[in-house]
């Protein structure tokens, strides 16, 4: 048996979490009396998540599960799922930034918080403008809030833009959150499950010579 400290253990935990999440989604669809298409989509995701866990368990520990499942080909997607009404898409965007001065970024976040809480000379109820921002994540949140949730809020001198990527996927099931996330579940909203299909990917690569230019590499389906 493989050493449990093997680096594949974390990946295995994430695969098991995906299988559990898919099982819950399938049960919800069945109990809720969902349309056949929705139940079938949930079944397909559950099937493939189970198959992926089974395969990874064997690769990591040379052990198997009681499940006898094979991955379903994603060509099983109905044409309406890819182009018709009612399809669900997931849009994921990642941008990397360099933070040259953490204290300057935190100060910018504090300023953004205070600006949001003021209308003329009056404070807006519910926004505690007297509390300073103390953490990087909190500062980024305040900058995004100040821009209405737009990533343009991060176009500030305190952040230097690096590489980024935008992905659009067709997914069988919409995003749901677990009340009690288990090991490996924290990143599930950003994981492409076996039945997701890439519709578009745009890579933004910063050109080191100029520093303020980007090269786009677009892949669309």
Short description:
With 221 residues, this protein is an alpha+beta fold. It has helices at 8-31, 36-61, 79-83, 102-116, 136-146; strands at residues 88-98, 118-119, 122-123, 160-171, 197-206, 214-220. It has a 4-stranded antiparallel sheet with strand order 1-4-5-6, with no helix packed on it. A two-stranded antiparallel sheet has the order 2-3.
Cα-based radius of gyration, to the nearest Å: 22 Å
> What letter string, H or E per element, gives the SSE order?
HHHEHEEHEEE
Shape summary:
elongated
Give the rounded overall mean pLDDT. Answer: 77
Main beta sheet strand tally, sense and closure: 4 strands, antiparallel
As a percent range, the share of strand residues is 15-25%
Can you lay out the helices and strands and say which pair or pack?
Blueprint lengths: L7 H24 L4 H26 L17 H5 L4 E11 L3 H15 L1 E2 L2 E2 L12 H11 L13 E12 L25 E10 L7 E7 L1
Antiparallel strand pairs: 1-4, 2-3, 4-5, 5-6
């Amino acid at each position: 048996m493989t050493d449990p400290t093997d680096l594949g253990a974390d990946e295995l935990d994430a695969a098991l979490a995906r299988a559990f999440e898919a099982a819950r989604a399938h049960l919800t669809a069945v109990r809720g009396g969902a349309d056949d298409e929705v139940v079938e989509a949930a079944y397909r995701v559950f099937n493939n998540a189970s198959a992926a866990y089974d395969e990874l368990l064997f690769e990591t520990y040379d052990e198997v599960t009681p499940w006898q499942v094979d991955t379903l080909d994603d060509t099983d997607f109905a044409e309406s799922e890819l182009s018709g009404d009612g399809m669900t898409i997931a849009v994921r965007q990642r941008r990397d930034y360099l933070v040259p001065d953490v204290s300057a970024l935190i100060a910018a976040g504090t300023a953004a918080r205070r600006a949001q809480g003021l209308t003329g000379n009056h404070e807006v109820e519910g926004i505690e403008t007297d509390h300073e921002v103390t953490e990087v994540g909190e500062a980024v949140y305040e900058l995004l809030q100040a821009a209405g949730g737009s990533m343009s809020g991060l176009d500030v001198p305190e952040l230097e833009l690096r590489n980024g990527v935008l992905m659009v996927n067709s997914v069988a099931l919409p995003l749901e959150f677990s009340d009690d996330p288990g090991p490996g579940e924290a990143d599930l909203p950003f994981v492409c499950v076996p039945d997701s299909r890439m519709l578009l990917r745009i890579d933004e690569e910063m050109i080191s010579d100029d520093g303020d230019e980007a090269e786009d590499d677009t892949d669309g389906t």
